[in-house]
Amino acid sequence: MSINSAFHSQRKWNIGFILFLTLLLLLLSQISIRLTLITALGISLGFVLQKSRFCLVSALRDPILIGMTQLTRAFLLLLGISILGFALVSWGASQSNIPLSLNIFPMGVHTVVGGLLFGIGMVLAGGCSTGIIIRIGEGFAMQMLAFFGLAVGSVLGERSLKSWRYTFGEWPGIFLPDIFGWVPTLILELIVLLTLWQLARWWQKKQLGE
Amino acid sequence: MKKTLQTIIHGPWAYWIGAIILGLLNILVLIVRRQPWGVTWNIEIWAEWIGTNLGVLSDRGFTFEGLMAASGTYLNLGLLLGAFWATLVASQVRFRPIRDKKFFFSALIGGLLMGYGARIAYGCNVGALLNGIASSSLTGWIFAFAVFLGTWLGSKLLLKYLM
Amino acid sequence: MTRFSIDIWGEMCPIPLIKAKKKLSSMQCGDILVLETEHSCTSRGIVVWAKANRYIIEEKEVANGIWHLELTKTHD
Hints:
Chain C: This is TusA-related sulfurtransferase. Chain C: It comes from Desulfosporosinus lacus DSM 15449. The complex is a heterotrimer of chains A (about 210), B (about 160) and C (about 80). With about 210 residues, chain A is mainly alpha-helical. Chain A has helices spanning about 10-30, 35-50, 55-65, 70-95, 110-125, 130-140, 140-170, 175-180, 180-210. Chain A has three domains: about 1-50; about 55-105 and about 175-210; about 105-170, no CATH class. By secondary structure, chain C is α+β, with helices and mostly antiparallel strands. Chain C has one domain (about 5-60): Translation Initiation Factor IF3 (2-Layer Sandwich). Helices cover about 30% and strands about 30% of the residues of chain C. In chain C, helix 1 links the parallel strand 1 and strand 2. The longest helix of chain C has 13 residues, at about 40-50. The interface between A and B is large, with 123 and 118 residues.
């Protein structure tokens, strides 16, 4: 096999693309600073997700199929950072009366059914909805098709949500700090994450040891 | 120094480094957007708008102006551009076609299931799982458990039909 | 010391790794398994897995976005 003969630098294209991104952000900044910031954050998220090969499907699936939990533990770390950060931000927002909405969604049978379908779907499609967008950026035709499926499926889901609610009912979402208070909730959540982390580590050792 | 820069540009980065940066970015999105990062709802409203314009869906009142003002549009666009850029800086851009018929079906079916599941549960891995849990919502933890079970079922299907 | 290779071209994660594991179990110590993929995550996943298993792994980019992997089975 020939080594390195088919490798061409894409540096010129890269410079062109950086110019394009800069122009895009400059143009957007004339319309809305907020949207410019959000676009920049989106680009950073996409960049980091691709560069670190972060994949939420892999984090949930590989412990089952391969016995590897490195990515699972990284995901738990991401959860821990997010929990603490969200708590800090929402505390700060309430101190200075800035409106802020968190993702406290109502729950019902459809939460569980939706999660199950989502879990099955993401293993088959080779990426969750974020992962699919990342992989389209990498040039995968398979995920472009999956994206089409995702768009159609999401319309079907949104339009049948009413009947799920009507048939099985729905309960308002529970914001854990409302029940336990902020500090105990954070401690509880971090203990759960740490336990899962230890469990994941033990699981990988056990799987590799065989 | 040059080698470090090379690693940063070329990657891949360690998973835990990715996790820390993603965590910080996730928090920044919450600060700027005043609402956590989410992916599928925006895809759904674009699909509604396209479907309405093609005449296959009843109008639920989504306008082009409304979509262009939605922050989710810019997050998703940014994700796509960012991922492409990350591939480009490492000179790894190429078109990767589907090389086996089985993946044609699995992608389509998987996508459909995922879209449907995400919308009846109010979110995907990011909106409902990561940021549901990050918001200290009980629903997030329940959803996470359901997704994990779903992944297990999906793995069984993968071993049976895709291997 | 024999060189084996399996066809994982175009396969989605985690099928390449499952196939590689299967092939590896039928190989002798010192044998080399050659793999080639265009999936960035697949290549990364195999490298991380091989390192965790203390196998020798070499990763090379042979063309834009194509990774060539050589895994040496160092132990049973």
